[in-house]
Amino acid sequence: MTRFRSRSRTRRPGRKSRPPLWRRILRVALLTLALLLALLLLLILLLRWVDPPYSMYMLSPASGPTPPSLRHTWQRIDDLPRHVPLAVIAAEDQRFPQHRGFDWRSIRQAVDSHRQGSRLRGASTISQQTAKNVFLWHGRSYTRKVLEAGFTAAIETLWPKARILEVYLNVAEWGPGVFGIEAAARYHFGIPARHLSREQAALLAAALPNPRVHAPARPSSTLLQRARWIERQMTQLGPGWLEPLQLGSSSPAPSAVRGM
Predict the structure, then answer these.
(1) What one-character-per-residue DSSP string does 214-259 give?
(2) d(CA 54, CA 180)
(3) Of 247, 204, 195, nearest to 226 (Cα)?
(4) Alpha-carbon distance 101 to 161, whole Å?
(5) pLDDT string in tens for the chain (260-residue length)
(6) Is 126:85 a contact under the CB 8 Å cutoff?
(7) Which helix (H) or strand (E) holds 107?
(8) Are 138 and 62 in contact (CB under 8 A)?
(9) Contact residues for 168 (Cβ-Cβ < 8 A; gap 6+)
(10) What's the whole-model pTM score?
């Protein structure tokens, strides 16, 4: 009898079939995403010691022109009077030394007030604002909020609290195109940041929610009222509120307010 050979080729033992194309594409995409995430975390870790010369917001058109007489000069937090960071904490995020990037109590209070008919107010912490200013753009979108949460968790994990506050003080906008506490002190009061008085620090902190409208050197009654409230909060919190940040020592500044 004549034997008929099968036309199908027999597979060699040990030879594996190639995975489907969609699986290979997915694998490359995941590897690329993992590499980008690793590089991003490395950059965030590097910024723990390296001062960022610019932030994403400074480079955006929305930041506006920077006055040519002002350069972005980095100011170490240990060289500032203690009432400068205390004023910012009292105004922006009083639980900053305690939370891990997200103030859930303030978030719940904001949501409850909104449900009762009040206008929805922001509950962003200093950590969240630092992440937004350094790495992201300004604007309201769910995409930015999700990315902001990721960056906030990263800097809270990789940076000490004092570093987060130092970066915030140096990248926050304190006037039209005025970035950083050193530029703010010179622009509004004509003095270095290390010479800011307690009252001047409170006025600068009071202007932070809308720095392009408020003028700390020529405060309106509303701004002056908020600055006095901040000073009362600073007194209640006390210098000991900064102890968890482990800041270095610095000499106090005079208490006279220029132009008041």
Answers:
(1) --TTS--HHHHHHHHHHHHHHHHH-GGGGGGG-----PPPP-PPTT
(2) 10
(3) 204
(4) 10
(5) 555 555 555 555 556 678 888 888 888 888 999 999 999 999 999 999 999 988 888 877 666 666 555 567 899 999 999 999 999 999 999 999 999 888 877 667 666 654 666 554 556 899 999 999 999 987 778 888 899 999 999 999 999 999 999 999 999 999 888 999 999 999 999 999 999 999 999 999 999 988 888 999 999 999 999 999 999 999 999 989 999 898 874 444 444 443 34
(6) no
(7) helix 104-115
(8) yes
(9) 88, 126, 129, 130, 133
(10) 0.81
**φ/ψ bin of 9: left (φ > 0), alpha (ψ from -120 to 50), beta (otherwise):** beta
- What are the φ/ψ torsions at residue 105 (nearest 5 degrees)? -65, -45
Place of tokens 């408020």: 214
Retrieve residue 100's tokens.
Answer: 């891990």
Q: Where are the chain's structural domains?
A: 55-62+75-242
Please report the beta strands in the chain, taking only residues with DSSP state E, as ranges in sequence order. 173-175, 178-179
- Quick one: DSSP state of residue 20? P
Q: Choose which CATH entry (1.10.760.10, 3.40.50.2000, 1.10.3810.10, 3.40.50.80) describes domain 55-62+75-242.
A: 1.10.3810.10
Q: Where does residue 249 fall: left (phi above 0), alpha (psi -120 to 50 degrees), or beta otherwise?
A: beta
